[in-house]
Automatic annotation (TrEMBL):
GO terms for molecular function: phospholipid transporter activity. Gene3D superfamilies: STAS domain. Keywords: Cell inner membrane, Cell membrane, Membrane, Transmembrane, Transmembrane helix. One of its GO terms (cellular component) is ATP-binding cassette (ABC) transporter complex. Residues 5-90 form the STAS domain. It comes from the Bacteria. Belongs to the MlaE permease family. This is Putative phospholipid ABC transporter permease protein MlaE. It comes from Caedimonas varicaedens. Its main location: membrane. It is a multi-pass membrane protein. Pfam families: MlaE, STAS. Could be part of an ABC transporter complex. It is found in: Cell inner membrane.
Length: 378
């Protein structure tokens, strides 16, 4: 059994001898603290602290002894150390000579000061630039990953791609079809109400065809995919990042871009044009039904007028946009997912950013395509 720590006080001529003995261990700290604080030493006396009888001294007990020596200095009591075994003295000197570095002083800046304002504006300016550079680097990595798969198609995980196509495409058919159908109905009702004033209700079919096929079909489908599949991509990759599954792939020598990112983007590239075509058909069906009840145009007349109103590029201008929108929706979703760090709050933050940035890019590129098609005359 360990020997209990003891403190014995004796007088030798003008000196007070404090003889420490026993084993000074962490679990005895309350007892050690009590014995040291109970010592009543006269001011300006001379004390000899004898460590020769100490059998064991750990760092916690040595720290209490260091605090006791500081107390003696405050009371102007001079002391000398009678050394014990080399092990005991090594521990004592290590603790006694240790001086923790002071915490750096941080100046409190007022939230309304000029320095705070400049600091805030600097961060607001540099943060988007930093994100843009990271996104460009990520775009390069994805491009390299796609080139590798084009050169070596066997590197593509076909089963994963088919599963993603099912989740992104087939599972999205109901919501995309319902939204497109209702948009077709709304376009006919709103268009017919305005054109009736000029006696041109029949041109509602032209309005429906051009609006659905050129713009609304692809735009609404891309927004639904960005909110549905883009957020799912971000959340999946984010939790994989938190669970250190991405790090495990690096350790195994597997490129996460090639395994996780490229199949997801390829799935969107395949699915979004098909979903756009389905959305166009559902919008026309919804518009045709609304036209029958509102204007009285039968299915045969509707089909004939629809064929006359569709130009050479009316359908393809919408479909051409789909792969571009798909690529950037998948790119943003995977990029934000791999930026997740910390915890669940970060997953929510980057998922929101993914949806917002994806929809923003879809609208930006849609406007750019509109200007391009207008310049080309198509």
């Amino acid at each position: 059994m360990p020997t209990a720590p003891t403190v014995t006080v004796s007088q030798l001529k003008e000196d007070l001898i404090l003889c420490l003995s026993g084993e000074w261990r962490t679990f005895c700290l309350p007892e050690i603290k009590h014995k040291l604080s109970a010592l009543k030493l006269p001011q300006e006396s001379k004390v000899v602290i004898d460590l020769s009888s100490v059998d064991f001294l750990d760092t916690a007990s040595a720290y209490l002894l260091k605090k006791f020596l500081k107390k003696l200095k405050r009371l102007k009591i001079s002391y000398k150390i009678k050394e014990g075994s080399p092990t005991i003295m090594a521990t004592f000197h290590m603790v006694n000579e240790f001086t923790p570095s002071p915490e750096p002083r941080t100046e409190q800046t007022s939230r309304f000061s000029l320095i705070f304002l400049l600091n805030f504006l600097g961060k607001m300016a540099l943060e988007p630039l930093k994100t843009l550079l990271e996104a460009l680097s990520f775009l390069g990595e994805v491009t390299i990953g796609m080139i590798k798969i084009l050169i070596h198609p066997r590197r593509l995980r076909f089963i994963t791609l088919v599963d993603l196509i099912h989740k992104v495409g087939a599972s999205a058919l109901p919501i995309v079809g319902l939204i497109s159908f209702l948009i077709g109905v709304v376009l006919v009702y709103q268009g017919a109400d305005q054109l009736r004033r000029f006696g041109a209700e029949i041109f509602t079919i032209n309005l429906l065809a051009v609006s659905a096929l050129r713009e609304l079909g692809i735009l609404l489908t891309a927004i639904v995919v960005a909110g549905r599949s883009g957020s799912a991509y971000t959340a999946q990759l984010g939790f994989m990042k938190l669970n250190q599954e991405i790090d495990a792939l690096h350790v195994l020598g597997i490129d996460p871009i090639e395994v996780l990112v490229v199949p997801r983007i390829l799935a969107l590239l395949i699915v979004l044009p098909l979903l756009t075509f389905f959305a166009d058909i559902m919008a026309l069906i919804g518009g045709g039904i609304a036209t029958y009840f509102l204007i009285g145009v039968g299915p045969d007349d509707f089909a004939k007028h629809l064929l006359l109103s569709i130009g050479e590029w009316t359908f393809w201008t919408g479909i051409i946009k789909a792969p571009v929108f798909a690529f950037f929706i998948g790119l943003v979703a995977c990029f934000e997912g791999l930026r997740v760090s910390g915890g669940a709050e970060s997953v929510g933050k980057h998922t929101t950013q993914s949806v917002v940035e994806g929809i923003f890019l879809v609208i930006i590129f849609d406007a750019a395509f509109s200007i391009l098609f207008s310049v080309l005359g198509i």
